[in-house]
Amino acid sequence: MAATKSQGSAFTLFMGGITAAAAGVAFFSTGMGKLALVLGVVVLAVAFFRFLKIKPEEGEVAEGAQPAVLRLAGLAAGFGGWIVVLFGLHLTASVSGRMVTTLIGFAISLVGVLVLLPAAANKNAIWKA
Amino acid sequence: MTDFPTPSATHTTTKELNFMRLVRIPLLLCALAFTLAAGAGLTARADAPPSATATELKDAAGKAPTTATLAQGDPGGTLTGTINDVPVADSKTGLTLGDVANQVGQNKIGVNFTWTLITGFLVMFMQAGFAMVEAGLCRVKNANHTYMMNFFVYGCGLFAYWIIGFAIQMGGAAGNGNLGGLQPLASEHLLNLFGTNWGIFGQSGMFLAGHTYDVGVMVIFLFQMVFMDTALTIVTGACAERWKFLTFAVSSVLMGAFTYPLFANWAWGGGWLSQLGVNMGLGKGYCDFAGSGVVHAVGGVTALACALIIGPRIGKFNRDGSANAIIGHDISAVLIGCFILAFGWFGFNPGSTLGASAAGCLRIGSVAVNTMLAGCTGTFGAILYMWVLKGKPDASMSGNGLLAGLVAITAPSGFVNPTGSAIIGFIAGVLVCLSVSFVENTLKVDDPVGAISVHGACGLWGVLSVGLFADGTSNYGGAWNGVTGSVTGLFYGDASQLVAQLVGISTLVGFVFGFSYALNWVLDIFLGQRVSAESEVAGLDLPEMGQIGYPEFVFAPEPEVLRTAGAAAVA
Predict the structure, then answer these.
(1) Which of B499, B505, B529 to mutate to test the interface with A (most CBs of A within 10 A)?
(2) Does residue B353 fall inside a structural domain?
(3) pTM of the model
(4) Could you report the predicted ipTM of this complex, rounded to two decimals?
(5) Distance from chain centroid for Cα A39
(6) What residues make up the domain containing B346?
(7) Which residues of chain A, if any, have pLDDT below 50?
(8) Chain A residue closest to B561 (CA)?
(9) Which of A31, B34, B410, B515 has a Cα at 20 to 30 A from B332?
């Protein structure tokens, strides 16, 4: 399968939904704004439902399943390292101390991004088939 | 020669003393009167209307060329642009000093508007360069699809940025005097943590409606929009030749609406990264002059996230994990595209002063030269690396070397000297070669155009280099990010600036990457990121776009591995 009319209409719904939702947020103080927000969220939900419905039409893809646990672990390490950096800034006021905590947090993030997530991606990679 | 009496030899008579007393009293009175007169004079000068100036203005108006004179033509250009061209507020009183001062102010803002808009137009033209580079590095069967992604990303990004992205990024960025103050953008959402307020996202400017229907806001919107679109188009390169067009479009809209604006707010919109100097004493806060981090690293880490999710192209890797080279179809497009990008970079970096007529803005010359130099040394770095170690001055890596140098100098271009920029560019040129190899051979991530390395790795290097090479001479109005003084890196004595830069890098790798990965994972679940194996092997031009890029060309058959691996991939 490939690009289709149903994809086009689902994308149109998505664009309409996100526009209405944004207008709702922008003018939230008015009655019309609240209505637009509700309408936008509903249309977005319908758009994603349609996306899901037409997804199988694409057919077989050259994509191996990636283990969700490993992916979540990679994401957690990435975010976790960043959190370490943020809180490390409050642990000490010295420049060298902050440098150390920042580098530790950065290293944790790198483990997630450059070790765990690639491992998940390559676990059942198509080229291993 | 005259003989002067010595002090011991002098003597004063009573008659002389009486005379001196008589003289002293009037002298004191005179001095007092003079002092009072001088003081009164000073006060009078401060309070009096500028009568002399008003007279001069009247004289100048009298000497200005008449309509009849101007009707004769002005081939030398000496008669055009005179006092006649200064608008008068009240025709009854004629030209006043206030009129002249207003015109001076408007001239300053006019120069800055013009500068910012023209440099923004240059950045917009970079989209053409990206399209050529990416399409040229892809196979001919995917040319239309790759060009179309680069074409449509402009619309997707612009629309998303207009409806919400700009507000998130710049909604709290009021205070830029170069563009008239931008006062309508004065609403930043703050989060109080540990007793300190941190900016999280802006809140005004959605749809450019209400108070943000403002001339200054329009200028900054256009300039920031084209930057955002540059970040979006980076991702299309890393996912080329297998990205489903529908998912690309949705992903680009969401990136233009949320991912990019959020980090851009933190760095440029008054957000928490820019406040690291004020709140934590870390240098001048996170400093990114033109966007090595905000634009390129955001695009680069998002490209890595998407490439990890979408997986490699069919036939890219063999069973033993070794990589096959999949050669692009048009090296001329690649190199011409690189030149277009280098040209556009003169909008990217010098334009980031947001003006040519304000404190420190004359540094645009230095910024432009730094940009040129880093691009040059980046090219040298890549060419020499490839030539010495691989035996050939590889054309595509040469182009990537140029871009790597330009990406790396983007953040420090306003803070470093030419020597520093040359070093930064050269390191980036070598780094991009090493990174391409690392991404392909170690991570096993397929990046057809090297976007992750050029924009991600070298973008992060650019951010880091500010903390090393900033020489402390760039005084843009006396302060940066609200901290008095010039941005100064480790090599010039301020280690705390390096920490601020590292916090920015950690945010890019930890938060921005994670956010992008999570977002595109959700899209993978709902939409699917990848085209069918059948479409991929056939080429995406017909299945996805309905038309092949070069209909009258006869294509050479692809290598066996790229045609037969498709069946195995879905088996």
Answers:
(1) B499
(2) yes
(3) 0.89
(4) 0.97
(5) 23
(6) 109-173+206-545
(7) none
(8) A127
(9) B410
